[in-house]
Amino acid sequence: MAKLPVSSLRHLRLGASAVKPSRLVGAQKCINTRKFSNSAPTCTDGVFRDLTEARIQTPWIEALRKKQRNGEDPSKESGIPQVPADRKLEPKRMSDSYHRVILPLAQDPWLLDTYLNSSGHIRLGTIFMDLDALSGVIAYKHTGEEVTTVTAACDRITIRNPLTEICDLEYSGQVTYATGRSSMEISLQVAKAPKGGEKVQEKDVLMTCTFTMVSLDPGTKKPVNVNPLHVETEEEKRLFAQGEENSKRRKELKTKSLIKHTPNDEESDIIHAMWQKQLQWHDPNDPLRRPANVQLMSATRLQTASIMQPQYRNRHHFMIFGGFLLKQTFELAFCCAASFAHTRPTFVSLDPSTFQNPVPVGSVLYMTATVVYTDPAVVDPNRPPPSSDQEAQDPSAKKKRTRVQIRVDSKVRNVEHGETKPTGQFNYTFTVDADVKVMPESYTEFMLYIDARRRAGQVQASIEGPVGGRVDPGERERVME
């Protein structure tokens, strides 16, 4: 009987015990026999082991005891540079950082077990966690081990072709933009795993995304330069130009932020019209009242608090890795959208989101999810509501499907709750099969609404974009959630 490859066997954890795949001699024995050993597996956090092994190389207890012996906190800056100022930064090729991993979901039912939710769908949050881990592997292949590399932003995660059946997946990516400064852009792809010797077809691409990573000096915690890219082929030039465009767009968004500028004329008119609508709803002399399908933004909020455990640490041991935050914020956003619409939401995209401050192991993470925008909106000058005559003649005129945007804000406090820092802002878009709308009340909520409305325009542009890069709007059946 043919042996199963070790890479397709799943560790089974029970307290400090684990299955030892190397001791299972065949497929039948793997199914019927579970042997236990006192050796702890390196897969500690739910991330696919081939990615975890590249990230976690020392058991937590050893890292903690070393910290206690030395009397220093490696997560704090020492003020002493550890990266040589004169180190050579030779240009590197994109292919130098290329990394590819096969996730054998169809071959390994125990591995699949860790990726499924209660309804038998693949958990997107777990895929997001894997992608951040993969971006870290790729970043260190480009920079080397002497620097500390952290996730600074996730520019966008979109669904291209929804997965309709359980199959093996291929994770792949490489550094596609680096100019020699401290940051680099990493482009990632999730696709159906091709057969041996074949290439991934466009129709098999499930998901694409880009992460921005920043390299720091381990001692000073300040940015340090990394190797620039040397581009050769036309495809590499295209990817590099796209990264340059993404960098410019991020800078433009900062300059046009509502923190720095007032809403434009159209946006001001929308705010005024919504305020007038609320006055009308509250006017005792006007029979019109707030419709049952319109919820106040303040009523849509969901909040969580959780202590950060070492199983979700990054490769430097004392900080939580960014993929865990992506998973947690996604699942809270999903719950928020479901609570708002009273139906299961379908993921469309993770819009440009930022990681602001690191999350220390042992700290308390607070997250707040809010419905900040819906399309169709309560008031939209560019899309007047259909008249009753139109609805009578065409039932589809009254749109039942709504695109919902959820903003998740996260902050971290130490256990003593003496210090609070913002850790990130994450923006998720879902489609729901319901006619629901959100209404802001305070000025702060109106600013959240207008900011989300701008993001919604970018999502719509990607849905209506060229066929090769078009994003799925979340209206087709799928086995992901």
From TrEMBL:
Ranges where the record places region Disordered: 65-92, 377-404
PROSITE patterns: HOTDOG_ACOT
Keyword set includes Hydrolase: yes
Gene3D superfamilies referenced in this protein's UniProt entry, alphabetically: Hotdog Thioesterase
Basic and acidic residues bias (residue ranges): 65-76
Keyword set includes Hydrolase: yes
Keywords, sorted A to Z: Hydrolase, Repeat, Transit peptide
Domain called HotDog ACOT-type: residue spans: 101-219, 298-436
Record-linked PANTHER family: ACYL-COA THIOESTERASE, ACYL-COENZYME A THIOESTERASE 9, MITOCHONDRIAL
The family this protein is said to belong to: Belongs to the acyl coenzyme A hydrolase family.
Name of the protein in its database record: HotDog domain-containing protein
Organism name: Phyllosticta capitalensis
